[in-house]
């Protein structure tokens, strides 16, 4: 299996493992390995104005959903979670698909699965 196919397969497995949380959590959330390999719940897709989970997943420029001035904050928190396996909470502003803004609190939690470190993001509007 090619590396990208391997990651795609892992995302599907993690998505299945987290299915009850993705479907029942009152929070918007997404699970992220990298820009190409990620998933979210419908609450998150709706929050950003996407018509479906797949529409958001297809956006390979994930940072485009975050205002430029907050992008470094998101990158640093992601690296802390994925490299150091350390959870954190940050406040950032997302740019919705229609370019309106929504201020949110993001809880980033590391999850190790089959040799890869995913980061689960729980989102609440502020």
The H-level CATH homologous superfamily, spelled out, is PAS domain
Helix content: 25-40%
Q: Give the overall silhouette.
A: globular
Q: Widest sheet: strand order?
A: 2-1-5-4-3
Give structural notes.
This protein is α+β, with helices and mostly antiparallel strands. The protein has a single domain, classed as PAS domain (Beta-Lactamase, 2-Layer Sandwich), CATH 3.30.450. It has five helices and five strands, in the order H-H-E-E-H-H-H-E-E-E. It has helices at 3-17, 19-24, 42-47, 53-58, 68-84, and strands at residues 28-34, 37-40, 88-95, 101-113, 116-125. A five-stranded antiparallel beta sheet has the order 2-1-5-4-3, with helices on both faces. The longest helix is centred in the middle third of the chain and has 17 residues, at 68-84. The mean pLDDT is 93.
């Amino acid at each position: 299996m090619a590396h990208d196919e391997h990651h795609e397969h892992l995302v599907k497995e993690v998505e299945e493992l987290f299915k009850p949380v993705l479907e029942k959590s009152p929070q918007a959330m997404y699970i992220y390995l990298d820009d190409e390999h990620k998933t979210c719940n419908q609450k998150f897709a709706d929050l950003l104005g996407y018509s479906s989970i797949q529409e958001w997943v297809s956006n390979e420029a994930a940072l485009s959903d975050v205002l430029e001035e907050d992008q470094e904050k998101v990158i640093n928190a992601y690296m802390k979670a994925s490299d150091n396996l350390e959870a954190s909470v940050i406040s950032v502003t997302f740019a919705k698909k229609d370019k309106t803004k929504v201020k949110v609190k993001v809880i980033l939690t590391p999850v190790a699965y089959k040799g890869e470190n995913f980061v689960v993001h729980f989102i609440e509007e502020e």
